[in-house]
Design goal:
Layout (H helix, E strand, L loop, with lengths): L4 H40 L4 H20 L5 H27 L1
């Protein structure tokens, strides 16, 4: 338990921030998961490439918002987006190779 008024206030503020950050982080992870699932659906033949691209776009948007709020660092946001885009680009390339053959 804190000993001073300011420490008590800091503790309350930290708890509010933790809850807020948790919500942002959960939302970000959900959108990343949706994007990955959409890309897996394309690989399985049950989804469309346009849906996967839209899901990745939305995930990147949410990742940027989360980073702008200071919940994650800029480098972490760049890493998440980079990994999603690498996966999407390889998927697009695979589709192009299959269609060309």
């Amino acid at each position: 338990m804190p000993n001073t008024k300011s420490a008590l206030r800091a503790m309350r503020k930290a708890e509010k921030r933790r809850i807020r950050n948790q919500a942002f982080r959960t939302r970000m992870r959900t959108y990343i998961k949706r994007a990955r699932m959409a890309m897996d659906a394309v690989l399985n033949g049950t989804g469309s490439l346009e849906e996967a691209q839209r899901a990745v776009y939305e995930a990147c948007r949410i990742i940027d918002k989360t980073a702008s709020k200071g919940v994650i660092k800029k480098g972490a946001a760049a890493r998440y987006k980079s990994r999603l885009m690498q996966r999407l680009n390889s998927l697009i390339h695979q589709k192009a190779v299959v269609e060309a053959a």
